[in-house]
From TrEMBL:
It comes from Nocardioides seonyuensis. One of its GO terms (cellular component) is ATP-binding cassette (ABC) transporter complex. Keywords: ATP-binding, Cell membrane, Membrane, Nucleotide-binding, Sulfate transport, Translocase, Transport. PROSITE patterns: ABC_TRANSPORTER_1, ABC_TRANSPORTER_2. SUPFAM superfamilies: MOP-like (SSF50331), P-loop containing nucleoside triphosphate hydrolases (SSF52540). This is ABC-type quaternary amine transporter. Its EC number is 7.6.2.9. GO terms for molecular function: ABC-type quaternary ammonium compound transporting activity; ABC-type sulfate transporter activity; ATP binding; ATP hydrolysis activity. It holds the Pfam family ABC_tran.
Length: 325
């Protein structure tokens, strides 16, 4: 294991930011810390980096107890959303900075900077100033700078948060490819579930200072440990006391199944090849249903139609913070 966090607690005044957090992050993986705003993701990352001190608990990095080590002795590289660059230095000088303060030989610094600029696809921009780069290019420069000193772990706090959606998506793909090339253990904070699902090998879901679940994107999506994880990682609806995905609601025109809930279609919307339906049950609950256009047409569904709803056989349903099927 590259990073072991055990029994970590952190409070700010009487506000508990981290509550007995335990996680093990394997070497060489790309891990996302995912959760809603204020859940404690950045606090956890900052404690791993050594920028914040925990009240209790331990952090081990590559087998070394780092709990009381200062940040600069932990061999971690980090990149934040609003990354501080040296505005008066060229891109190449920014990347070289960490190596120069470590007094590495000049030839080695030049070679390493060339390699890194190539890795982040900025070779032709080495002589520019950071202000002459786009936001996405600046973040790639920040990553090259963090990687320059060959950190054991790379910590990224919403590194693409301030960028527009298209650039964000490009950088996300690029980060995945970069990681496949260099394999440095990487932990990144995001509140964007799509970003975590697309990029990470493993996701740690954090909410209200606690780890809700750790798993691969598929495990979290298909086997959510509870209601919170299920609703954070995809669209959900509620039917008769359970939470499930809208495409897992079965619609029939007759009450043939025991336990089927009677409802009336109040809204039917075609979106591309899908049909999105809202059905109001006899108890006044609005249930969201998604099905293919072909299926909706075969059933002859329309607004005002009376239907019966059940979870599709084998559907993942979650009841009161507990997995039931
Ligand atoms: N230095 C501090 N002093 C007081 N409270 C703090 C401090 N740092 C963080 N907090 C509080 O701790 C909680 C967790 O913050 P943290 O930044 O870790 O959350 P987060 O999950 O990273 O959220 P976001 O995605 O919004 O950054 C928040 O409620 C925050 O207000």
């Amino acid at each position: 294991m590259s990073i072991e966090v055990s029994g970590l607690n952190k409070s700010f005044g009487d506000f508990v930011a981290l509550d007995d957090v335990n996680v093990s992050l394997p070497t060489g993986q790309l891990t996302a810390l995912l959760g809603p705003s204020g859940g404690g993701k950045s606090t956890l990352l900052r404690i791993i980096a050594g920028l914040e001190k925990a009240d209790s608990g331990a952090v081990t990095i590559e087998g070394v107890d780092a709990t009381h080590l200062p940040a600069q002795k932990r061999n971690v590289g980090f990149v934040f959303q609003h990354y501080a660059v040296f505005k008066h230095m060229t891109v190449a000088k920014n990347v070289a900075f960490g190596l120069e303060i470590r007094k590495r030989p000049k030839a080695e610094v030049t070679r390493r900077v060339d390699e890194l600029l190539e890795l982040v696809h900025l070779s032709q921009f080495g002589h520019r100033l950071p202000s002459q780069l786009s936001g996405g290019q600046r973040q790639r420069m920040a990553l090259a700078r963090a990687l320059a000193v060959e950190p054991t772990v790379l910590l990224l706090d919403e590194p693409f948060g301030a960028l527009d959606a298209k650039v964000r998506r490009e950088l996300r793909d690029w980060l995945r490819r970069l990681h496949d090339e260099v394999h440095v253990t990487t932990v990144f904070v995001t509140h964007d579930q799509e970003e975590a699902l697309e990029v990470a090998d493993e996701i740690v879901v954090i909410n209200e200072g606690r780890v809700e679940q750790v798993g691969t994107p598929d495990q979290l999506y298909d086997e959510p440990a509870n209601d919170f994880v299920m609703s954070f990682l995809g669209e959900v609806t509620h039917l008769g006391g359970v939470t499930l995905r809208p495409h897992d609601v079965d619609v029939s025109l007759a009450s043939s199944t025991a336990g089927a809930v009677e409802a009336t279609i109040t809204r039917l919307l075609r979106v591309g090849f899908e049909v999105r339906i809202t059905a109001r049950t006899v108890t006044g609950e609005d249930v969201a249903v998604v099905m293919t256009r072909t299926h909706a047409r075969a059933l002859g569904l329309a607004e005002g139609a009376r239907v019966w709803l059940t979870p599709t056989p084998g559907a993942k349903v979650v009841r009161r913070m507990e997995l039931v099927g």
